[in-house]
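User: For documentation purposes, I need each entry recorded in a consistent format: the amino acid sequence on its own, followed directly by the corresponding structure tokens. There are two entries in this batch. Please keep commentary to a minimum and don't merge the entries.

Assistant: Recorded as requested. Entry 1:
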Amino acid sequence: MVHFDQISDAVRMKIVKGALPLIARHDVRTLGAPSQPLALGPSLQEELLTLQEVDLGVGTAPRSTGQTLSLLQIPGEHARLGAGVGGPQRSFGHVIAGPPSGTSLSTAKPEDWSVKAVSASDLSTRIQAAIEWIDANVAGDPVIRVLSVPAYQITALTLYAGDAIVGVVALPAQGDSSFDRLRVYSMAEFIDRLRQLPRAEGLAIP
């Protein structure tokens, strides 16, 4: 069974309250209804690999961004989005939230947290599909975090056993053949593959 880093109910409630006004601006609140409310799904710690860290190669570890990505979900049966009766909740967006820069996620108080952004992109769908695949196909009980590599415009899920990364599952967009979908790469394989890809100009983070 997959796991996620522990985030208190008080923090998740703060995320919900902070996200609601932004959700309304995106007009995604209309996806819900009194009988089909929106829900906050899993919250994943967010990590980052910079261009310089990719260039360093094997042995490089992602660093925390000090933020979380929480999935926005609707019920499995939905008038506008379809899905079967009684099916699992479906993700349609995500919320980025966290305490002030430099504050540890583990020590920050609920009142320190704020919502940074709300997105209705299909990334949430890819994250949910990968989580479900990992849960069904990967042995052990990995802790899952979300990894961004801005210099290559790649997002992935990192699988942890304790402090060690035991796998990486890339989340390529539709039509992107840079990585295989639903495949567990080692961190070395993942970085090696990144180094073979063209870099996205103007997106390197020092």
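Entry 2:
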Amino acid sequence: MKFELASLGTWGSARLIAEFDPESNLVRVDAASYERVRERLGDAMAERFIAYAVAHEGFHAARPDCAEAAAHEFARAETGADRMLFEDALRA
């Protein structure tokens, strides 16, 4: 699955961090979120952030009826990273 950095904005009151586009089989990752993780955690963790987002969104695409927690667990298993690491960096 491919990805690109893009400006995603918000959906309602929630900031979008990543989204899957089924027409292009592409995961868009919010560029500002990526830069924030890179600045706070370094280049290697920023790349892991991308991998986590792609795994998470890919899980949702393949299993749209599964809960959010299942997508987080799948992405953690695929990347070895915990979502809280990234969420903490994005809040800081």
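Summary note for entry 2:
The mean pLDDT is 92.
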